[in-house]
Design a protein that fits this description.
It contains 3 helices and 8 strands. With 133 residues, it is of the alpha+beta class. The chain has a single domain, classed as 2,3-Dihydroxybiphenyl 1,2-Dioxygenase, domain 1, CATH 3.10.180. Bound molecules: zinc ion.
Length: 133
């Protein structure tokens, strides 16, 4: 198993436009992309900081997992994404070690990444994303 880095941290927000005021005006980061992932019923905004990114997630429908997350827990950190070069291999290895996967096979995420989520019940409460280019 080899993970390269924290690719991004996903943060659930009610409004990307509102949240960007904080990240851009106060923290001085720059949003370089806004993208809708229809599959997930979310709009995403990306900001880069060093090797890592922040991914702001806004629900585009009340059915969105992000809408449900905010309803239950409020705005805040939603997931951590680790980058690997070989996503299928990594997922198999994780699964064989007894971790519950949400996505058995990778699917398409924002920025053209292949992504898969691990179940937070298996990961000490942290929704974990594995991704690769
Ligand atoms: Zn993510």
């Amino acid at each position: 198993m080899k993970l390269n880095k924290i690719e991004h941290i996903g943060i659930a927000v009610k409004s990307i436009e509102e949240a960007l005021k904080y990240y851009e005006n106060i923290l001085g980061l720059k949003c370089y992309a806004i993208e809708e992932v229809q599959d997930q019923k979310v709009k995403t905004a990306f900001l880069k900081i060093g090797e890592t990114k922040l991914e702001l997630l806004e629900a585009t429908s009340s059915e969105s997992p992000i809408a449900k997350f905010i309803e239950k827990r409020g705005e805040g950190i939603h997931h951590i994404a680790f980058e690997t070069d070989k996503i299928e291999e990594t997922l198999n290895e994780i699964k064989n070690k007894g971790i519950r996967l949400i996505d058995e096979t990778p699917r398409k995420g924002a920025e053209g990444l292949q992504i898969a989520f691990l179940h937070p019940k298996s990961t000490n409460g942290v929704l974990t994303e594995i991704c690769s280019k």
